[in-house]
Each structure stands twice: as structure tokens, then as C-alpha cells.
Design brief:
The protein is of the alpha+beta class. Helix content is 33%, strand content 17%. The longest helix is centred in the last third of the chain and has 14 residues, at 102-115. The radius of gyration is 15 Å and the shape is globular. The chain starts with a strand and ends with a helix. Bound molecules: FE2/S2 (inorganic) cluster. One of its GO terms (molecular function) is metal ion binding.
């Protein structure tokens, strides 16, 4: 165990955990930030996507020690009250079906638009290809990203 200093959603937090603990477990089990979901646990599905220094990353295989003192943003911290353009577009397009993967989808989309405010179809497909949705909401996801980009 070790004290690890984290900057999560603009707040400094210290957790006493094994440094190899994946960030996902720290968020959910130690800090109560359960918006980030566990899907595969093998960096394959995207359900656990967060931002690390503004980049979309899989938190299920990211050791907490490698996130120390870096800016972490979770779905809870993306906006104060669901007012991020991506969240608003998600509602407008009624994207979610079961909803389980959607926090990860939104975090990946938000990271894309931050770096590429007006992405092409190919850039959207490339950025989103690692986020799996078993309900098949892909067309609505793409439409919502285009709305958020305008
Ligand atoms: Fe992390 Fe699937 S739970 S990528």
C-alpha cells in the first residue's frame, strides 16, 4: 500500500492503495465515482474510458501509480450539470439504449472534439472504434458527435 495523490475532476485526492491497482477500481471502490463502468477489464471495450491529461484512456488497466499528479476527468467531472455539448447532443439524439457503455462513449467523443473540433466521418469512426456498444447505437453516436461538433 502507498499514498497516491490524484487530481480528479479538479480536486486533489489521496488514496492509500496498492500502486498497481487499476484507476477504475480506485474511482469506483475508493472514491464512489461509479459513472465509469467496468466492461471487459482488458482494455478492449471502452466502457471504462476516462480522460488522463485530456486524452481518452482505458482506466481498467491503468495502474493508479501512473496517473499520480496527472489531471483525471471522469464522466462526473465532464461538466457541472450535464451541459457539455456532447452530453446535450446525446440527449438530443436519444443515443442511449441500455446506457451501460455510454459514459465511455461520451468521454471518448469529448476527447476527440477537444482535439479535433470538426472531425470528418473517418476521424469519428477511427476515434470511436474502440468503444463497443452491444445495443448497436453506433449511428446515433455518430450523429450526436456531428451535432456536438457544430
Ligand atoms: Fe476497460 Fe473494457 S472495462 S476497456
Amino acid at each position: 500500500m502507498a499514498n497516491i495523490n490524484l487530481k480528479i475532476n479538479g480536486k486533489n485526492q489521496t488514496v492509500d492503495v496498492d500502486p498497481k491497482t487499476p484507476v477504475l477500481w480506485v474511482l469506483r471502490d475508493h472514491l464512489g465515482l461509479v459513472g465509469t463502468k467496468f466492461g471487459c477489464g482488458m482494455a478492449q471495450c471502452g466502457a471504462c474510458t476516462i480522460h488522463l491529461q485530456g486524452n481518452a484512456v482505458r482506466s481498467c488497466m491503468l495502474p493508479v501509480s501512473s496517473a499520480e499528479n496527472k489531471e483525471i476527468t471522469t464522466i462526473e467531472g465532464l461538466s457541472e450539470s450535464g451541459e457539455h455539448p456532447v452530453q446535450k447532443a446525446w440527449i438530443e439524439h436519444d443515443v442511449a439504449q441500455c446506457g451501460y457503455c455510454q459514459a465511455g462513449q461520451i468521454m471518448t467523443a469529448a476527447a476527440l472534439l477537444k482535439k479535433t473540433p470538426h472531425p470528418t466521418d473517418e476521424q469519428i469512426e477511427s476515434a470511436m472504434q474502440g468503444n463497443i456498444c452491444r445495443c448497436g447505437t453506433y449511428l446515433r453516436i455518430k450523429a450526436a458527435i456531428k451535432t456536438a461538433a457544430n
